[in-house]
Design brief:
about 25% strand; alpha+beta; globular; two-stranded antiparallel ribbon; six-stranded antiparallel β-sheet
Length: about 180
């Protein structure tokens, strides 16, 4: 069961077509030069516009233990629905530039990170798009992704099936994820 989040100002345009939604997940468990992971994530969202990415809606921040190693620092995660003229590959490149600017270093898999930006969905696109798998192959199983998404767009339907609200309630990874206060 997903807990009721604190009130979040969603500000989704009435004309937003959730079938065309571009969804980006954000995560941090190493604050780097920032005062906190929350500050780093807010700064990352602010940086989106410089890369031609407009935030249409964003969730609250959700806290969870690190996965798969709960002895790593805990994570703060959230989701944003964005608009951009970038195609999926150009959007991934822009997200990579933002990660790099925030000190992201790709070392061991699942190592603590200053910023993790994942393209969860690009409209209804499905499959291998020249090496980019859409939608994100593991997002539907992760409460720290589906919970925040259900908070802002419970009626969003995963391209492979399932509403965000239902996927959040059946997620099997990060089941301790909860809205951070």
């Amino acid at each position: 069961m997903v807990p009721e989040p604190d009130a979040v100002s969603v500000n989704i345009d009435n004309d937003l077509d959730l079938d065309a939604a571009v969804i980006v997940a954000l995560g941090c468990n190493d604050k780097g030069v920032w005062a906190s992971c929350r500050e780093a994530l807010e700064a990352a969202l602010a940086r989106f516009r410089c890369e031609g990415i407009d935030v249409v809606a964003r969730s609250s921040w959700w806290a969870s233990q690190a996965w798969p190693d709960p002895t790593d620092p805990p994570f703060l995660n959230g989701v944003a629905i964005v608009r951009t003229a970038h195609d999926p590959h150009a959007l991934m490149a822009a997200l990579g530039r933002i990660e790099e600017a925030f000190g992201r270093r790709r070392t061991a898999a699942n190592a603590p990170r200053t910023l993790d930006l994942d393209l969860i969905a690009y409209g209804r696109e499905q499959g291998d798009c020249d090496g980019l798998i859409l939608p994100h192959p593991r997002a539907a199983d992760r409460l720290f992704v589906m919970g925040p998404l259900a908070e802002i767009a419970p009626g969003w339907e995963h391209p492979a099936g399932g509403l965000a609200s239902v996927l959040a309630s059946s997620a099997t990874v990060g089941t301790d994820a909860r809205p951070a206060h």
